[in-house]
Amino acid sequence: MSLSWADVGKAIAGVAPIVGTALGGPAGAIVGSMVASALGTDSTPDAVTAAMAADPTNASKILQLQNQHEEALKQMQLNYAPAVVNAQGSVIKAEASSGSWLAANWRPILMLSFTAIIVVNYLVVPIAQWFGVSEAPLILPPDMWALLKIGVGGYIVGRSGEKIARSFNS
């Protein structure tokens, strides 16, 4: 089984937490190639893991790499989150202002569908059970909850952006 840079990051995080976190992020391959270069191995997660296992002193090389590039690695992590939020907001604004009815409304339709499932599970089914109806609630996988949180957050950001844009245009 092939490892990912995120897997390597988890293994390295105990020795060099900043490098470990960066390996699990969007620049994982770039940071991974820096680690591989410091260890004198191929720039693959498997090769870096093998080099770490073969020579325990390689941990000090990774710590030295972290100390040399600490500010750049921290700055990379700090710049990532706002860039993602801005990109997500731009996508939502573009969809909301689209001339296509479906493109502009698919998020609200999806959120209404999720809301319907939640209402059924936590309102309709419990009330039905009071009257002896034994209906099983709909199963919501954890990924669906995560999507719901992202969707609601994105919808709120998008709607807020639309209102701010309208107030500037007025």
Summarize, please.
The chain has 7 helices and no strands. It has 170 residues and is mainly alpha-helical.
* Rg value: 24 Å
Beta-strand residue percentage:
under 5%
The percent range for helix content is over 70%
Structural class of the helix and strand makeup?
mainly alpha
Shape: flat
Major sheet: size, sense and barrel closure?
none
Low-confidence stretches: none
Annotation, overall tally of beta strands: 0
Secondary-structure element order, N to C: HHHHHHH
Mean pLDDT: 81
Number of helices: 7
Domain module count: 2
End-to-end span in angstroms?
Answer: 58 Å
How is the quaternary structure best described? Answer: single chain
Give an overview in words.
- With 170 residues, the chain is mainly α.
- The chain folds into 2 domains: 5-81, no CATH class; 97-169, no CATH class.
- It is 79% helix and 0% strand.
- It is built from 7 helices and no strands.
- The chain has helices at residues 5-12, 17-23, 28-39, 45-54, 58-96, 101-130, 142-169.
- The longest helix is centred in the middle third of the chain and has 39 residues, at 58-96.
- The termini are far apart.
- The mean pLDDT is 81.
SSE blueprint and pairings:
Layout: H1 5-12, H2 17-23, H3 28-39, H4 45-54, H5 58-96, H6 101-130, H7 142-169
List keywords for this structure.
single chain, 170 residues, mainly alpha, 79% helix
